[in-house]
């Protein structure tokens, strides 16, 4: 491209790569993920996600492939659980969509089909035993029944409490247990890898619920304004004055610790931030020409709200939901730490609970590693949220 | 202003009602009755004995009445204005008037809940009253420093450190502090549990130093309590400090480039005066708004801190009550926690109006 002398162009202003004009979203996306800190945050969340998705391949007492008494079998596949299959199917579908560059709506619709089919297939095809015997492989190995085997890198399942091995509890990190063992004899690293799933799922699903409720309530408040807004603000104030942790503890104590219940309650009590943001955006948008045009064309309310207004007001929601995921993970860890949340299911907060025993002994490896995992994940989400906020705030642009 | 405060106080009631109704329905919907818990605790296996216990406690705590009646009875007990003495002949013999609030009796300990709350509330309040000024002073100072050297290495690095501090889970910080600084086997710098030494009631109030054959030192009740409070307060402070400090920086930056600041500098005012009297004064409003979220988060944080450091405060009481499935305790603690939160929100709003005379809560003349 030749530039006539004297005209102002990106090239002779010394801006190197400003070839095509980038649209607003691309600019915001670029500004969000350009800072190194935000990239590191995303990288860590990615690591946690990969560990969670491939957890059965990474930490498993069941051999991936083995020749037992002359037959080549895959105990791992025989013991595969429904969440494993659903998660793998979802990941595979997402990768397919990303490669073929499908639209997000296509991705979601496809996921709604792919995941139930995979779950159904898993329910029909696999027959996991009611009681899983983790000691059988060590027993068979001792008896020489296993000719060869392919083990996962960490040959312990999260629920393998090594009941056949004396003094398996509270072993310091060693060659066999890289991060040591917990108070019941489970391998800490294996439990931490499997906990990635629960902690990521809690963050995503709880915040998803919060976002949906926040958009519904905040959107209506911002669109109708007036007394709907007044009523909604009272509702928001009421929910904000509820001591969230206390309500959560009460719910869990009286209904029993259930992963899905915890997700639902965290979601149901933390939508106020999202609602406030969406309300502010919609109050700003409702007077704008394109919204007035959409209304005057006689479009249905859902179309005006979700097709026309929402895409223009969604970005603040991304910021709050990034911080929201972090605080949901913190809440779940706190619950499990207090001994009210998940106890047998591996979760980072629940492991931390064992670090200080009633007798006053301090188990440093149980304190250090799960705590570090919670911290890094929360930090990662906060870094991403911070970068998004900086990218969107024109006052901070330099 | 007075109208506004009165309106806010009146608006507290629907919120409190909503909160207690939610908690009450959670407990009412919970599977298994209260009486089964008591029967299990008393080891009642014989079905006839279980039945007797069941009937006795159902009657004693009014659990045999409909849920709405149970809730109204609780509400009547709690409110300072209500039915004092419900006679048989409704409503002629009822005496309505002012009375002392009655929070009921704990199913587990059979003590009046009011006594237990009275014993534990001061500890939680002490923890928060020590923490709050610390957070405010520290975060305003560091936020002002960051805004002053905006874009510098200290500002950017400090911002990252603050975000990191904010991300440290309180449970982890508490466990590590107790594990490393309060552990007999590692560094026994601080006590790991409780608010006082075992022999604290024999201490003098102030630290004393005296000669009797040698130099003796008695650290005294005050110093002993302060020493016990160090780790819990650190654990409660750091996250709130990080959060508020970042907000202070942002609030300062909104104003630091304004014309009136340049005028103030041009007048030759000292830098400290410019920063604290002019910039901070104008950036105070968003800060006060953030303090409204600070207080509830501190109350929530004391649940964690009191459990890690074994302080017998409200948070510890709440977790124990929830473990014991003690409905009267849970209801009362929910009420107290909500009242504390609402009062802090109200104080924030009043401070808001005091800090900025332009803010008016009166209805706009239309």
Give structural notes.
The complex is a heterodimer of chains A (398) and B (366). Chain A has a domain at 30-59 and 176-398: MetI-like fold. Chain A has 17 helices and 3 strands. A 3-stranded antiparallel sheet of chain A has the order 2-1-3, with helices on one face. The longest helix of chain A has 37 residues, at 188-224. Chain A is 63% helix and 3% strand. In chain A, helix 1 packs antiparallel against helix 17 and helix 12 (272-285) crosses helix 14 (301-313). Chain A is globular. Chain B has 366 residues and is mostly helical. Chain B folds into 2 domains: 2-98, no CATH class; 113-204 and 217-355, MetI-like fold (Orthogonal Bundle). Chain B has helices at 2-29, 34-41, 47-60, 67-78, 113-148, 153-167, 170-181, 220-256, 259-266, 271-282, 284-308, 314-324, 327-355, and strands at residues 81-85, 95-98, 208-211, 215-218. Chain B has a two-stranded antiparallel sheet. Chain B has a two-stranded antiparallel ribbon with strand order 3-4. In chain B, strand 3 (208-211) and strand 4 (215-218) form a beta hairpin. In chain B, helix 1 (2-29) runs antiparallel to helix 13 (327-355), helix 8 (220-256) packs antiparallel against helix 11 (284-308) and helix 9 packs antiparallel against helix 10 (271-282). The longest helix of chain B is centred in the middle third of the chain and has 37 residues, at 220-256. Chain B is globular and about 85 Å long. The model of chain B has no long low-confidence stretch (mean pLDDT 80).
- For the largest interface in this structure, which chains are involved and how many residues does each contribute? A-B, 48 and 55 residues
Mean pLDDT of chain A: 83
User: Mind describing the biggest β-sheet of chain A?
Assistant: 3 strands, antiparallel
Assembly type of the chains comes to heterodimer
CATH class of the domain at 30-59 and 176-398 in chain A: Mainly Alpha
Which series of helices and strands of chain B comes N to C? Answer: HHHHEEHHHEEHHHHHH
* Domains of chain B (count): 2
Using only C-alpha atoms, the radius of gyration of chain A works out to 26 Å
Low-pLDDT residue intervals, each spanning 5 or more residues of chain B: none
| Spatial sequence of strands, sheet with the most strands of chain A | 2-1-3
Rounded to the nearest angstrom, the distance between the terminal CA atoms of chain A is 30 Å
Largest sheet of chain B: 2 strands, antiparallel
CATH class of the largest domain in chain B: Mainly Alpha
State the secondary-structure class of chain A: mainly alpha
CATH architecture of the domain at 30-59 and 176-398 in chain A: Orthogonal Bundle
């Amino acid at each position: 491209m030749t530039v006539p002398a004297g005209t102002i162009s990106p090239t002779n202003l010394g801006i190197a790569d400003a070839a095509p004009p980038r649209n607003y979203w691309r600019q915001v996306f670029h500004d969000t993920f350009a800072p190194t800190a935000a990239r590191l945050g995303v990288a860590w969340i990615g690591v946690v996600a990969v560990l969670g998705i491939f957890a059965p391949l990474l930490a498993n007492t069941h051999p991936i492939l083995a020749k037992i008494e002359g037959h080549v079998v895959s105990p791992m596949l025989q013991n595969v659980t429904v969440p494993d299959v659903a998660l793998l199917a979802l990941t595979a579908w997402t990768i397919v969509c990303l490669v073929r560059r499908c639209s997000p709506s296509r991705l979601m619709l496809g996921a709604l089909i792919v995941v139930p089919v995979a779950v159904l297939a898993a329910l029909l095809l696999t027959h996991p035993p009611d009681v899983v015997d983790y000691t059988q492989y060590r027993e068979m190995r001792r008896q020489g029944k296993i000719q060869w085997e392919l083990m996962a890198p960490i040959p312990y399942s999260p629920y393998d409490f090594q009941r056949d091995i004396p003094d398996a509890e509270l072993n310091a990190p060693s060659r066999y247990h890289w991060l040591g063992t917990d108070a019941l004899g489970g391998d800490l690293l294996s439990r931490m890898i499997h906990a990635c799933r629960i902690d990521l799922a809690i963050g995503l699903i709880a915040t998803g619920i919060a976002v949906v409720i926040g958009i519904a309530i905040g959107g209506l408040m911002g669109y109708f304004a007036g007394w709907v807004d007044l009523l909604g603000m009272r509702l928001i104030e009421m929910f904000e004055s509820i001591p969230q942790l206390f309500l959560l503890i009460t719910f869990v104590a009286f209904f029993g610790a259930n992963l899905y219940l915890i997700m639902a309650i965290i979601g149901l009590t933390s939508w106020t931030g999202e609602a406030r943001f969406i309300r502010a955006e919609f109050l700003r948008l409702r007077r704008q020409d394109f919204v007035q045009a959409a209304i005057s064309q006689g479009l249905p309310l859902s179309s005006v709200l979700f097709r026309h207004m929402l895409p223009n007001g969604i970005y603040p929601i991304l910021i709050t939901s990034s911080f929201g995921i972090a605080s949901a993970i913190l809440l779940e860890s706190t619950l499990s730490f207090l001994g009210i949340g998940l106890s047998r299911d591996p979760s980072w907060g629940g492991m931390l609970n064992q670090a200080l025993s009633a007798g006053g002994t301090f188990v440093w490896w149980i304190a250090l590693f799960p705590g570090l995992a919670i911290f890094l994940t929360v930090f990662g989400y906060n870094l991403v949220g911070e970068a998004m906020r900086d990218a969107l705030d024109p006052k901070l642009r330099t | 202003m007075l109208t506004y405060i009165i309106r806010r106080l009146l608006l507290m009631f629907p919120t409190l009602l909503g909160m207690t109704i939610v908690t009450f329905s959670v407990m009412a919907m919970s599977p298994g009755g209260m009486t089964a818990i008591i029967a299990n605790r008393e080891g009642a296996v014989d079905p006839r004995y279980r039945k007797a216990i069941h009937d006795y406690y159902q009657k004693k705590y009014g659990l045999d009445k409909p849920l709405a009646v149970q809730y109204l009875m609780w509400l009547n007990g709690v409110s300072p204005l209500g039915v004092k003495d419900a006679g048989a002949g409704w409503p002629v013999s009822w005496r309505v008037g002012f009375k002392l609030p009655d929070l009921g009796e704990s199913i587990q300990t059979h003590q009046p809940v009011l006594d237990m709350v009275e014993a534990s509330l001061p500890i939680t309040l002490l923890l928060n009253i020590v923490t709050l000024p610390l957070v405010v002073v520290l975060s305003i100072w560091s936020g002002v420093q960051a805004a002053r050297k905006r874009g510098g290495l200290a500002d950017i690095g400090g911002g990252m450190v603050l975000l990191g501090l904010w991300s440290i889970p309180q449970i982890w910080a508490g466990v590590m502090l107790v594990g490393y600084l309060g552990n007999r086997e590692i560094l026994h710098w601080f006590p790991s549990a409780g608010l006082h030494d075992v022999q604290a009631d024999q201490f003098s109030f102030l630290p004393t130093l005296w000669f009797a054959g040698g130099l003796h030192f008695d650290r005294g009740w005050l110093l002993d309590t302060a020493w016990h409070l160090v780790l819990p307060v650190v654990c409660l402070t750091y996250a709130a400090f990080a959060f508020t400090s970042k907000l202070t920086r942002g609030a300062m930056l909104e104003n630091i480039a304004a014309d009136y600041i340049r005028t103030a500098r041009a007048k030759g005012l000292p830098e400290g005066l410019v920063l604290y009297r002019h910039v901070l004064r104008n950036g105070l409003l968003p800060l006060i708004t953030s303090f409204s979220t600070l207080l509830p988060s501190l109350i929530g944080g004391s649940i964690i801190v009191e459990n890690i450091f074994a302080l017998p405060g409200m948070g510890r009481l709440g977790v124990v009550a929830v473990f014991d499935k003690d409905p009267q305790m849970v209801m009362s603690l929910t009420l107290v926690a909500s009242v504390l939160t609402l009062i802090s929100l109200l104080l924030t709003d009043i401070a808001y109006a005091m800090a900025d005379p332009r803010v008016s809560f009166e209805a706009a003349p239309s």
